[in-house]
Design goal:
One of its GO terms (molecular function) is methyltransferase activity. The protein is α/β, with parallel strands linked by helices. It contains eleven helices and seven strands. The protein folds into two domains: 184 residues, 3-Layer(aba) Sandwich (Rossmann fold); 80 residues. Helices cover 45% and strands 17% of the residues. α4 links the parallel β1 and β2. The site of S-adenosylmethionine has 23 residues, from α1, α4 and β2.
Length: 275
């Protein structure tokens, strides 16, 4: 049951990832923003794993942090694009594995990160357990997910549309017929907020912080984000309370090391060390 749903989600994402130009879709600044508080010192010379690596867009940046081994796992055919993107780098100590992260088991990594994946799983908590399971004793984990908090507009307007189109339309119609026209007002709204003075009352507008972040990118990135939102058959918006309970109830998590950080007002970064 779990496998079937995650498989269709991964297949949907592969339509997105395998139809992008070569290379990372993220800037260096975005990579740092997603990975902070992890730094190069945490990864250099260490075994690093990304669970749910897509087309390797984060892995290509992580390679610059010079881990001793860099492994990416994904259930979808996007592993083809990930292999191409990593093969183009001078860094050679990488491996891309096609597998269901919920079941995949390794000997353990010094650092495991999982960005934008758990909220797309049929069972996000099982994905969290898989992250922890693949960290060596004393190692670190770092996760980013969509928040329930700060996403009212997306949950009310975009998510109902996603539930319909992701199930009945082909990827190209979602991308060009729906995501592209939707990305136009999204792009204009974000750019407007970005160029307006940072007035206190403006901060109350929907997705304000997020818009300041994404407004640094070009239109094609907005379309990619809109397409990503609409193509996936499974999305769960996770509350801080849920994340706190995951961290608290996993016996391997060192409670003194945990952090939960609000990112752009509508998502959570969280992580820590494993005992
Ligand atoms: C939004 S993408 C994020 C990709 C990458 N982490 C990034 O930030 O660019 C989510 C990825 O999770 C993968 N995925 C979903 N369910 C999975 C599962 N059960 N096992 C492994 N990968 C999975 C999808 O195939 C997709 O590539």
């Amino acid at each position: 049951m779990t496998f079937t749903t995650d498989q269709s989600t991964a297949a949907a994402f592969a339509q997105s990832w395998n139809n992008l130009p070569a290379g990372s879709i993220y800037t260096h600044e975005q990579f740092i923003d997603w990975l902070t508080p992890l730094t190069k010192d945490d990864a250099q010379g260490k075994k690093v794993l990304e669970l749910g690596c897509g087309n390797g867009s984060l892995l290509t940046h992580m390679a610059n942090w010079q881990p001793s081994l860099l492994v990416g796992v994904d259930l979808g055919d996007s592993v083809a694009a990930a292999k191409k993107n990593l093969a183009a780098l001078p860094f050679k100590h990488w491996q891309i594995i096609k597998a269901d992260l919920v079941e995949w088991q390794s000997d353990g990594f010094d650092v495991v990160y999982c960005i934008g994946v758990l909220h797309h799983l049929q069972e996000p908590r099982a994905g969290f357990a898989a992250v922890i399971r693949n960290v060596k004793p004393g190692g670190q984990f770092h996760i980013w997910v969509y928040a329930r908090e700060g996403n009212g507009v997306i949950i009310c307007l975009v998510d109902p549309l996603r539930k319909i189109v992701s199930r009945c339309l082909p990827w190209w119609m979602i991308k060009y017929g729906i995501a592209t026209p939707l990305a136009v007002p999204f792009f204009l709204y974000a750019k407007l907020l970005f160029y307006l003075p940072r007035l206190t009352w403006l901060r109350r507008l929907p997705l304000y912080q997020y818009c300041l972040w994404i407004a640094k990118r070009e239109f094609s990135f907005f379309r990619h984000v809109a397409f990503d939102q609409l193509i996936t058959p499974q999305t769960t918006y996770l509350s801080r309370e849920t994340i706190e309970s995951w961290l608290k109830n996993n016996r391997r998590v060192d409670q003194d090391s945990v952090y939960i950080i609000s990112r752009n007002g509508n998502s959570w970064k969280f992580g820590g060390r494993v005992k």
